[in-house]
């Protein structure tokens, strides 16, 4: 009798100790979600399917990505069809029931955070259009904060033993974020009303947040690469509008932007469209700080 009782109390003692539970395995479709998870779930094992020099619209469903998704407890992707060309194939081949659409382990951020520029009807032509709205919502610092709240909740649901830790990390991060937002907004004041030429709708959320105006897109239609004919029509317009810069993403070929710059004298600005840990742009805050500094530097020079 005594023997059993002491055994039971020993078991109760063990159960009360914190479990060395395994950290979550998180698969991010894009670097920004890996970076956000790095702040909100520092213990998790996190990997990103893509990097800053890749076009997230077009990714190959490589075996290594399939293997990574197979092991994942949680997949975090932008959604709004950004990954429509490659994620479904990965999900199917990984055959991991946890990360299929509709499961708790599959988080499409755009299902929880409002997108801009939704299309009522889509005419199917060339290029990739975004009928569910612009999926590049991580480039709005306000929406990034909303995404942080959604991700933190999802982490707690999937890993309830760390619920309190996720909450603490989120509260700390969102308080810091609030302060940064105010600081960025103040410093960005000189950019308000300035014009830009872009290549794709990648940074539209950021321009909106900064109060900057897109006057031309090097893409004749969203997702259609620039053509000589289209570029030629922009020369006169760009000369008249005098935008601050011709912006392209690090993953894009700068050739078209350079061509237009040579003919108009408007400088080219190459920006990272997501975090780039190898380049020192590690956290979401690093990304906005980098983007803001690049724009302000050009504004001061101009
Ligand atoms: Zn896009």
UniProtKB/TrEMBL annotation:
Any one of the GO BP annotations: metal ion transport
Keyword field: Signal
SUPFAM superfamilies: Helical backbone' metal receptor
Pfam family, one: ZnuA
Domain of life: Bacteria
InterPro entries, alphabetized: Bact_metal-bind_prot9 (IPR050492), ZnuA-like (IPR006127)
Keyword Lipoprotein recorded: no
Single GO term (MF): metal ion binding
Segment forming the signal sequence: 1-23
Full protein name: Zinc/manganese transport system substrate-binding protein
Organism encoding this protein: Marinobacterium stanieri
